[in-house]
Amino acid sequence: MLGSNDPLSEVFEHFLSGPHIFKDREVLRPDYIPSHLPHRKDEIIHLGKILAPSLDGVRCSNILIYGKTGTGKTAVAKYTLDRLTKKGEEINASIRSSYVNCRIAGTPYRVLANLCHSIDIEIPFTGLATGEVFDRLKNTINSRRLFLICVLDEIDALVKDCGDSLLYELTRINEGLESGKLIIVGVSNDLKFKELLDPRVLSSLSEEEVVFKPYTALELKDILEERANAAFVRGRLTNGALNLCSALAASEHGDARRALDLLRVAGELAEREGASEASEEHVRWAQEKIEKDRVVEVLTTLPLHSKIVMLGILLLKKSSHENSTTGDLFEVYKEVCPRLGVDHLTQRRVSGLINELDLVGLINARVVSFGRYGRTKRVSLGILEEALVEVFKRDPLFDSIVNYHPQCLIRRHKKSNKSLEI
Ligand code: ADP
Ligand code: MG
Asked: Does residue 213 have its Cβ closer than 6 Å to ligand 1?
């Protein structure tokens, strides 16, 4: 027995005897669909009106829903389809619905396989030709006279990676069906998605369009209030904290997911700390944590040479060359590459990587002019140094080089009167 020396017994006891913040934290998870969706009544009614003819066996229009992330598209589409199929069951209509997240499915084959699974057709994980899977879907819809309404969520991701040929085939499937119908509800987070589509696909897919606008701070507050009432023990969340979550999420782009994340993480941090309530301070803390987690995720998935460029900036910063030029950065990059066992890229390619890193906000690059000596770019870190160090320390390739002192900087330092510009 571990007895009183067990380091965890105190942790567990502390948790059990401490003030409980949540009564049901699941309610704050992004995939939870509440039974009431405030401020989306118009969109729900609009979708319902477009899809209602299917209850009567009449083909309804395909729909394209678009709007920024966190504007309730997935929640509204799932909610409406759920209600429609329940109504269908009630009146014995052969309506089936299917939901596929195309980004997660990843390929046309897997999107089709998911659609097949939703109407109980067994499809192996791989092995069949995509055309074969398509035919099985079509034949089953036909023989069972099904009315299949499929939500293709994050459809923009699929089209960006794999083109629009699957959509082309799906929008034409009804032409070859004697009975049964397939209706597509496409959902896109990217407002420019339509530009990626062949005009024929676009016109069939967007017979009806529904646009979801970002939520305002007041709307977010209503949404959060309902979720918070279900998630938090009464009195364990301050009003100020709730308002701050809504305000912070609204100042980005009215993203309900962000607002809910802030609320959940603030509650978790308060609970872990043994605080009696989640306050504004916990929300601010949650914001930092979420931002840091996001940065860590982006950094972890960077390609190797972009990571080395990031390492270069970190090493420059550690050697107090915070606002260095791209020339300095290239020198350090070139010196570090062989130490990691890789060949360096040309300065031109590295400039391209720097621009990309600037675009995603990991670094700040700004052009400075030196009068008749020309122009150069100065680069600095656009994120918290700790997040970067954390990622490198976790990476076996970079772990040992985080504290490296580049020789080129030491040499420069010695000629301290000389300018650093290249
Ligand atoms: P999108 O698909 O547009 O990115 P989601 O539908 O996934 O957005 O919504 C993000 C999160 O916010 C989900 O947890 C969802 O339940 C919640 N949400 C969005 N809109 C509402 C609303 N009107 N009422 C309650 N919760 C909402
Ligand atoms: Mg979504």
From this structure: no
